[in-house]
Design brief:
The chain is an alpha/beta fold and 410 residues long. It has helices at residues 2-20, 83-99, 107-116, 126-147, 151-154, 176-190, 212-224, 241-253, 268-277, 291-300, 316-328, 343-353, 400-403, and strands at 51-59, 62-69, 74-78, 162-168, 194-198, 229-233, 258-260, 282-284, 305-306, 332-333, 361-363, 372-374, 381-382, 385-387, 396-398, 407-409. It folds into two domains: 51-150 and 401-409, Enolase-like, domain 1, CATH 3.30.390.10; 154-396, TIM Barrel (Alpha-Beta Barrel), CATH 3.20.20.120.
Length: 410
């Protein structure tokens, strides 16, 4: 009985702290929106924008989403090129039915509402949030076209006309000389001022090619260190905190400016240990889907750069909330993006309206998988920078003749 009383007296205060949350809760109370102000601004949206339909289409492995309001205005988006195939039932059976007949102006609350509705929170993870992100992007396009403003203006204001890029690459299976050649080629392809190269072997594998990491780091620094800001991504390679710290020290001594995901992404305490042991800024968050855990890591860890994936984390609104939390601590939020689809576009919208996106944003290429055109200034890459999307909505239109031939998913 004494032991039981001790456990009870120890646990109940802890539960009370968890339920109450800190004074500025940022999403760990029962309301997922917590203390966040709405991200979407309503000044040009005086009347309700009722979502009449929200449909999913597919063609050639690309997933297209159309949000249509009752007045006939349409917003379009393109879902994650690979994960959306796995998430299609979540979209058609869960996300779309919930959002139909709702006022799109309150998309902030709808993002939280669909999560809580009908125990959908039990599905939390990439396949849920990828489907919601696809819907959110289309609804933001719809709202921007209705309000006749860009997505960035809708989400807080266009702060940048151009977005500086870091070019990302993955050559883990190649030897160091082939890796370096490919890295230089990708840098030269856009005259990049920053790059991210891969260290380790990915997810608990130290190296696919033996000693590749230790040999490659100084070679990249010698070849490109004077031209580019260097970032390194371990993709959760190191099970050993000591090994992760050892690699971090090598990166430091070679002038690398960012060390991404040194240990398995869900090893939060190990990530904290590495971040506190090295001087190089550690980046984290690509795989994360919990607003609470982002909040905890921002407040309690040594991580200095936060990286919600704009698809995996559920869209622009939730990612901009992470940016707000990070900004309160003087930290940056530089999102991760997936290649293909319109990932480059959503990255450009985020970076152009976010206050603290960091100096460079991830770039994996403009898509040529379907015909599209800019509706504002032409989106182009020049001297390592991309034009910020500034046309109405998300800033591009997909060729209507192409869209007329896509297949609806039921």
């Amino acid at each position: 009985m004494n032991r039981r009383t001790f456990i009870y007296s120890s646990v109940i205060p802890l539960l009370g702290t968890i339920m109450r949350g800190p004074s500025k809760s940022y999403g760990i109370t029962l309301d997922p929106a917590g203390d966040f102000d709405p991200i979407v601004k309503h000044k040009n949206l005086k009347e309700p924008v009722i979502i009449k339909s929200l449909d999913l289409y597919e063609k050639n492995g690309n997933w297209f989403i159309r949000a249509r309001s009752k007045d006939g205005t349409e917003g379009w988006s393109v879902g994650h090129p690979k994960k959306m195939e796995l998430s299609q039932l979540v979209f058609t059976k869960v996300i779309s039915p919930y959002l139909q007949n709702k006022d799109a102006r309150y998309i902030d609350r709808l993002v939280d509402g669909v999560y809580l509705h009908n125990s959908n929170y039990k599905m939390q993870g990439q396949l849920f949030w990828v489907a919601l992100a696809a819907a959110e992007f289309a609804i933001i396009d719809l709202l921007g076209k209705t309000a006749m403003c860009s997505a960035a203006e809708l989400l807080g204001g266009q702060k940048r006309k151009n977005v500086d890029l870091y070019v990302a690459n993955n050559h883990r299976t190649k030897n160091v000389h082939d890796s370096l050649r490919q890295i230089i080629k990708s840098v030269n392809s856009i005259n990049a001022k920053a790059l991210k190269f891969k260290v380790g072997g990915r997810m608990k594998v130290v190296d696919t090619v033996p000693n590749r990491t230790e040999e490659l780091i100084p070679m990249v620094a010698e070849s490109l260190g004077d031209k580019c800001t260097l970032y390194a991504d371990a993709n959760s390679s190191y099970l050993s905190v000591n090994k992760a710290i050892e690699v971090g020290k090598i990166l430091e001594s070679n002038g690398v400016a960012l060390y991404e995901e040194p240990v398995p992404f869900d090893y939060l305490n190990d990530t904290k240990q590495v971040a506190e042991a090295v001087n190089i800024p550690v980046a984290w968050g690509e795989q994360e889907s919990s607003q609470w855990r982002f909040n905890w890591m921002i407040k309690n860890s040594g991580v200095r750069i936060f990286q919600p994936d704009l698809f995996y984390y559920g869209g622009l609104i939730r990612s901009l909330r992470v940016a707000q939390m990070a900004e309160d601590k003087g930290l940056n939020c530089t999102p991760h993006i997936s290649g293909g689809g319109l990932g480059f576009l959503y990255m450009g919208i985020f970076a152009s309206c976010c206050s603290n996106p960091g100096p460079y944003q991830e770039y994996k290429g403009l898509t040529n998988e379907f015909p599209w055109e800019s509706t504002g200034d032409k989106i182009k890459i020049k001297n390592g920078s991309m034009t910020s999307p500034n046309g109405y909505g998300i800033g591009v239109n997909i060729d209507p003749d192409y869209l007329a031939k896509i297949n609806i998913i039921r």
